[in-house]
Amino acid sequence: MTVPTPQRSLLAGLLALTMLAVPAAQSAQDSTLYLASIAAAEASLRLHETAAAQKWLGLAPEPHRGWEWRYLKARADESARQLAGHQSLVNGLSVSPDGALLASASSDRTVKLWNAVTGALVRTLEGHTAGVTSAVFSPDGRRLATSASDGTLRLWDVRTGQQQLVVKGIGSGIAAVAWHPRGQELTTTSWERNAQRGVWGVVKSWDASTGVPLRSLEWGVKPIVAAAYSPDGSIFAAGNWDYDVALYRTDSWQSPAILRPPAIAGYPAVQALTFSPDGTRLAVGAKDGTARVWDLTARALTHVLTGQAEGQSKWVNGVAYLGNTGHLATVSSDSTLRLWDGAGRQLATYHGHPGQVMSVAATMDGARLFTGGADGVIRVWNVADLAPARTRWSTRENMYEVVFSPDGTRVATTGWTGLISVFDVATGNTVKSWVGHKASGVRVAWSPNGRWLATTSHDDRVVLWNVSTGEQVFELGTFTPQAGDGVAFSPDSTLVAAAGGSGEVRIWRTADGAVQHTLKDGTRAANALAWTLDGRGLAVAGTDGIVKIWNVATSQPVATFTHGRGNLVVGFGADGKTLAVGSSDRTISVWDVPTGTERWRLRGHGEGLTSLAVSPDGRRLAGASTDALKIWDLTTGESLLTFSAEDSIYATAWSPDGRRVAMLVLDKTLRMLDAGR
Asked: Could you tell me if 71 and 178 lie in one domain?
């Protein structure tokens, strides 16, 4: 059929419109899917549903992935390395005394030896005919003892992988094995069952060279599933599914002392236990989702560590002390690794395993942790990288502003008593700190060339500082009646601008501290400044809700943006064409600078905006208000992530590489939100 020319033209036009509409519709769908994926991943991580979070992140359309996706991706797996090789649950882990080897026991009937430093598989030990429950290195690291549900105890030569000894017929299944610290004997825990007695626990000891039995004890009416010797060998601890831990004195092995939770709720059956390195405490993980810490001198319960899945009854499957730090690691069927301090306070929660975490072990120095999952995967954790101090720093006093150095390796803050502090980003350690003002510091700027800091304060002074020495270079000026909040360096570092409280903005030369320009706007108070990318213009935000961009050379305003009433904070996007304005009216306006049109009005903050930071790629905006820090999508105007704190959030900054967002909280802390590499 031939289509007439006019109809052909109309048809071609309709087809062209359809072709344009399809990509637009697909883009809208992708944007909606991305928002849903980010929201679902964030919610899943809060519930510790790591597998769901990882799935949602995988569904997020790649073109839309930004800082928030990388941040959640990093939180969904904070481990340093994965060791894959087992086909089933990793029930037990042990690190050799020298930290060189890792042994893993699995329900796939094998034991694997790994290079604990590189993660390389050294060898696989086969021989057990049922799931292996534990694998433990001898005190000298030369032998490995393994126990399994097949009722056998096996000894292996670590260097050759050869089986040295097999002891068979030990109970209905061996749950655990422990070496005496002298290395001359082994003790196993298991259980027996018959129609007349039901179930009872069994403790047996063996000569580690010959396998000759040394003693056999019965205790309790449930399987004994956890066992450990105290570091000096004077106490043997056995934990069972009847809530108890029996403490045997090894000089007599008679009438054990019993540790039992004073108020039993739920099902606190023992899953794991470990002694502290000094032998004064015993940590016990249980099926009621708690870990209990006992003082062995007083035989008293000192701490009950709760928090697994925030109240859900998730089994605590493993416990391990981190060297002599007093810190404890726990792993749970809620998919998490958690760290606790010696006072029983939870330090942090980490994700990585997509399902239940079955076991945990630490190197003797506490520098590395290993966790075994129900999926057969072992994860390696560098404790230094997990330390809360790496991402939550003490600022000694309340601070009001934060800024990154141009190379992103340091941050500077100004605070309550006029304190100026510089921190190392990698460690959170204070590099330099000095009192620079006689009243609280208000704002700080770091010169793009990295050499100077400029600060303002309620003492009305504007000061230029040498970053390296902390020495004053120039007192640039004093405002009367007072200095405003704004201070900013020009992109080439040759000029620094600061705002006064009476409608005046001064611009000084950094070379000699002399005033280069003065911008006067009646009595209009200014409280935020931002240079245009070419350094020719300066955005001045007033307390009247208006932002003016001034031509610095002519000292005349060239553009005006009316946000609305309220104190303002401002920031330019990476392209120089986007201006973000945050206000005490709790909204953010996003403007297209060349046309002067308002692109977005962002609503969602519960309190007034205190600080804004645009990401280096120009795609994201961090908005700090006293109630929350929000990450916004500057291309769609959508809210992506929200961070809260125990106190007011006062300032934020984006690192030059776009990896980190700094969040300054008025509880004397600076938080680093790290999206990884």
From this structure: no
